[in-house]
Amino acid sequence: MDVDRREFLTLVGCSALALSAGALLGAKPTLSWAATTDDLGRATNLDTLYAAVERIVPHADPELKELARQTARAIAMRAQSDPALRQTVEQVVGELDERAQKTYNRPFAKLIAEQQIIIMEQIQSSRAFQHLVNQVLADYYDKPQVWHALGYPGPVNDHEHMEGGYLARGYDKLDW
Amino acid sequence: MAKFPLDEPVDVCVIGTGAGGGNVIRQLCTAGVKVVALEAGPRFDPHKDFVNNEWVMFKKTAWLDRVLGDGADQTGLPIWLAKGVGGTTIHWAGASLRLQAHEFKTKTVYGNIDGANLEDWPLTLDELLPYYEKAERYMGVAGRVQPAPIGNTNFLVMKKGADKLGLDAHPGTMAINARGPYDGRPQCMQCGFCFQGCTPMAKWSTLYEAIPKAEATGNLDLRTHAMALRIETDGSGKAKSVIYATPDGQHHEQRARVVVVACNSIQTPRLLLNSASSQFPHGLANGSGQVGKNYTRHLTASVYAIFPKPVHAYKGITMMGIIENYAGHDPAARGFAGGFYFETIMLGPAFLSVFVTPGPDTSTADARAAWGEPLKNLMENYTHVAGMWIVGEDLPTPGKFVSLHPTQKDQYGMPVPVVTVNDHPNDKAMRKFAWERGRDIFEAAGAVKVYYTPPYPATHNLGTCRMGADPSSSVVNAYGQAHEVKNLFIADGSVFTTSAAENPTLTISALAIRQAEHIIDKMKRREL
Asked: Are the C-beta atoms of residues A158 and B50 closer than 8 Å to each other?
């Protein structure tokens, strides 16, 4: 898969240009770091949530990593007004920290990636963890910056996007 | 467009404006019949309201009123239907296949299968053929009445594998203006957003084909945001009126000579069951006890694969390619009854990430979502992914049905529907076989990694008011006319006696056109 990786990195290099395309993100609530930290309370360590989200969508590119943090912030923010999500986040984060302390004597966020994965695998079948994964994916892979990094152009032919379909831009040729 | 007085009776009240309701409405209105159509959802403007975004359009057009799942079914979202003028013809992919002759006679052809409640349809392919032809003309089916599509790259990958295995992959018959304009609608631009609502209106929908034609006659009063709650009957046991709610919380009564129910296979049985009365204690038209029973949804599953070189499968008509080699009934060779198709499919990154290896929020309770390296590997190869959907016949059993929740109510105070699904062993055997053949096809095309994807939330909801010759074991006759209530008709997929393997919209449309002609004929002769 080396070829894929090279192509992927090339695409990622180009994607910074697409950062302004976040029409969708514009509709989401503005994120406030401090408010999020305060309101989630001591039981929920935001660093733990960041680390968990980063392991769920572990793309290596720095821009994609930052977008993962945006997703974590968005989920923390939404958890303030969504009791079910709040319970999910608190349960997963609490469980990860407790197990990290017990096994490695450190908070989850301070573990190396390999250790974090081991801890996450221990709780991956729980309904709360699965729900968190669903929420992370639904937010993260809905970001135009992520699409462009993955090589997906996104919308092409609606009232806000006038590129048009692929009829005259190639849809019916496979070069292999 | 007409506006009839709210307190006056009308010739026909049609509930629902999708493939079933839309076709009935067009036929009735163009024949001079006055129709009030009740549509639970809004009316979208494709140019303004449809956008190329999966989650935005899901939230905008999906039926999100509560529908509960039970049995071994999807936990988060049992069904995926659209709410709005056009119904699920907003969301559908356009695949327009005729049923095969033997699929009208599964009880006879498949024989006795333990745990399956098979019946023969009360009509044959030959009887339906003229209506298939009419439907294909209205819908503009490419490959039937206009030139067939040219395959996209997703199709070319399918074909590469199929060719190596001696299978026949070809562009399918699609109700999409694939090669040029048709019926005043433009050519498909190959955007790849068929499921999100077709912005150029090149993919057929009743929203911009049947409904405007009906409105142009002056015989249609289409009321949106009108949720049907009950059908009332008169002393003679005939349908008298439809009680519906509007967003202001008011209830209204629309009287009609004939009532046509076309609310889809979840909401239609729900409405009939909620219309129980002293005269019809088990629900309207439910003397047989079969309303809500014999639910089928096609076995469905998908195969996705990563290839060493780019595919860009998101471009072009989503469901363009088809393999029909497994559509027949060949139990001796395969170990299960009935057949299935492979049809090309692709999702955007947003849906691919949650549906290819889904967790319990978007699949069954035991499903576990991919995360970490396996997810990263799939998503970083997004441009190298090809996909095929498996659509096959699933068997009606006592373990698949739609019922009313005993206590939970929706925003109108109406009991919430519960969809119970437990696969028959035949369904599981077919899915396993199809996954493996799909893997063979993609590996023959050079796949480096293959995914067996479980069913998505059900889009092909069928069979909950099955048609049959015997009133003791079916709800409606071959015209969709209720055995017990002669001026009550059902025009959606719930009348399917068995599911057959084919995408159902064309058959729903053909049956609806046939039904409408029957209603017109009976009304002329004052028999309705």
From this structure: yes
Token pair in block for residue B282: 């088990």
Candidate from A5-19, A153-167, B398-412, B475-489 with smallest mean pLDDT: A5-19
The pLDDT value recorded for residue B365 is 84
CB < 8 Å from A in window 329-348 of B: 348
| Residue of B163, B379, B442, B449 to mutate, interface with A, max A Cβ within 10 Å | B379
Prediction ipTM score: 0.92
pLDDT band at B55 (very low <50, low <70, confident <90, very high): very high
Q: How far is A149 from chain B (nearest CA, A)?
A: 9
A175 interaction partners in chain B (CB closer than 8 Å) = 309
Of B52, B380, B381, the CB nearest to A157: B52
| Residues 217-256 in B contacting A (C-alpha not used; CB under 8 Å) | none
Q: What is the pLDDT of residues B366-397, one digit of tens each?
A: 899 999 999 999 999 999 999 999 999 999 99
| Contact status of B169 with chain A (Cβ, < 8 Å) | no
H, E, C per residue of B375-440: HHHHHHCHHHEEEEEEEECCCCCCCCEEEEEEEEECCCCCEEEEEEECCCHHHHHHHHHHHHHHHH
Domain presence at residue A17? no
pLDDT at A41 exceeding the cut of 50: no
Please tell me whether residue A30 adopts helix, strand or coil conformation: coil
> Which residues on B lie below 8 Å from A4 (Cβ)?
308, 380-381, 384
pLDDT digits (tens, 9 = 90+) for B232-252: 999 999 999 999 999 999 999
- Across the interface, do A58 and B48 touch by the CB < 8 Å criterion? no
Instruction: Provide the residue range defining the domain that includes A84.
Output: 29-150
**Any residues with CB less than 8 A from the CB of A17 and at least 6 apart, and which?**
none
Q: Kindly list the structural domains of chain B, giving each domain's residue range(s) and its CATH number in brackets, ordered by start.
A: 10-524 (3.50.50.60)
pLDDT band at B1 (very low <50, low <70, confident <90, very high): confident
Which has the higher per-residue pLDDT, B101 or A25? B101
Give the count of domains, chain A: 1
* Burial letters B317-326, b for 16+ CB under 10 A, else e: bbbbbbbbbb
Q: Within chain A, what is the greatest distance between any pair of CA atoms?
A: 60
* 8 Å CB contact of A147 and B348: yes
Q: What is the pLDDT of residues A63-121, one digit of tens each?
A: 999 999 999 999 999 999 999 999 999 999 999 999 999 999 999 999 999 999 999 99
Residue range A11-33, pLDDT digits in tens: 222 332 222 222 223 333 333 33
Asked if A166 and B310 come within 8 Å (Cβ–Cβ), the reply is no
| pLDDT attached to residue B301 | 95
Q: Do B371 and A134 touch (CB under 8 A)?
A: no
**pLDDT per residue as tens digits for the range B265-301:** 999 999 999 999 999 999 999 999 999 999 999 999 9
* B363 lies within 8 A of chain A by CB: no
B366 vs A: CB within 8 A: no
List own/partner pairs for A23-30 with CB under 8 A and 24 or more apart: A23/A144, A23/A160, A24/A142, A24/A143, A24/A144, A24/B53, A24/B56, A25/A143, A25/A144, A28/A74, A29/A74, A29/A77, A29/A78
Q: Residue A155: inside a domain, yes or no?
A: no
Is residue A160 in a domain?
Answer: no
Cβ within 8 Å of A, B 41-80: 47-48, 50-56
Interface of B with A in 177-196 (CB under 8 A): 187-193
